[in-house]
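hiii so um. not sure if this is the right channel but i have a protein structure encoded as tokens and i wanna go backwards to a sequence. like what aa goes where. can anyone help
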């Protein structure tokens, strides 16, 4: 892992974010920064508010208080459909692809976020439209090659194994050329081997393409392997922020997962590779 620069302005800055559903404070005063080039992961037990944070960043929900800035720009007034054009792409917990289209077609559809030509230019297939189409094809083919999907290029999504569909979803997000990639539980439904492959893809996306990754994930082996920093949430609030190792040994986090700190060992033992300490102790909340 490369370790992101802490001196430049953050790519994403979340401050005092709140949203309530009826009596449930799904997100309750959450703040964090995501630095350019890092893999930043949200963890926490079911119902902690992680996906709601994603939905607030994607503008699917409106925050009741607080702010989200992306590249220094407030996202509060940005329409949900305009988010992708700003360079934010997303995958979903439950894969959302066009099942009866091929892998290539799914990627082309995803890429159309970049098409800004008017009706008449498209109708007459103007030189500008042709240039855009060529760039689209080029980019989509690049992504197919990058994620090793050549074999499935012309296959209908509906016929693909689940693990491949997860990679296609990732490909569709990459085809939009994001600066910030939101991954909602990339390992859900994957077996151990596929989860290992997913870890490689995430590392390659960050290291080779320079894309910043904000991820929600339950599998702590994947989290430890790819994350620079981890933010743990419970009941809508921030419990701890630090390296994967720091957060996993934080008593509040252990208690939130297991109910009692006495059962902590079972959280530490499985596949939890200790990470080199890169974040000062002070950043970990007590
Ligand atoms: N649209 C909604 N309407 C009502 N309640 C909601 C809505 N979205 C989320 N919630 C509630 O907000 C809380 C946080 O949910 P959220 O899905 O963000 O948790 P999570 O940490 O992503 O959980 P999981 O790991 O199970 O996906 C939960 O109590 C959930 O029931």
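sure thing!! here u go:
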């Amino acid at each position: 892992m490369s370790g992101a620069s802490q001196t430049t302005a953050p790519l994403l800055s979340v401050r005092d974010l709140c949203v309530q559903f009826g009596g449930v404070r799904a997100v309750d005063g959450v703040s964090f920064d995501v630095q350019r080039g890092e893999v930043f992961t949200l963890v926490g037990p079911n119902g902690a508010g992680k996906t709601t944070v994603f939905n607030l960043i994607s503008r699917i929900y409106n925050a009741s208080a607080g702010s989200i800035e992306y590249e220094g720009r407030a996202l509060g007034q940005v329409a949900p459909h305009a988010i992708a054009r700003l360079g934010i792409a997303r995958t979903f917990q439950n894969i959302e692809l066009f099942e009866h289209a091929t892998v290539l077609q799914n990627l082309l559809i995803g890429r159309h976020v970049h098409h800004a030509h008017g009706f008449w230019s498209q109708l007459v297939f103007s030189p500008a439209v042709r240039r855009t189409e060529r760039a689209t094809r080029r980019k989509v083919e690049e992504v197919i090659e990058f994620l090793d999907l050549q074999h499935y290029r012309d296959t209908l999504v509906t016929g693909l194994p689940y693990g491949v569909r997860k990679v296609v979803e990732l490909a569709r997000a990459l085809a939009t050329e994001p600066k910030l990639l939101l991954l909602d539980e990339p390992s859900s439904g994957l077996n151990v081997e596929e989860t290992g492959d997913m870890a490689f893809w995430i590392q390659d996306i960050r290291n080779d393409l320079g894309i910043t990754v904000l991820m929600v994930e339950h599998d702590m082996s994947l989290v430890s392997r790819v994350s620079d920093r981890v933010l743990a949430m419970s009941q809508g609030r921030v419990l701890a922020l630090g390296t994967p190792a720091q957060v996993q040994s934080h008593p509040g986090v252990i208690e939130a997962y297991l109910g009692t700190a006495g059962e902590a060992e079972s959280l530490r033992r499985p596949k939890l590779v200790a990470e080199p300490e890169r974040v000062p102790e002070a950043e970990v909340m007590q």
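oh and The longest strand covers residues 24-34.
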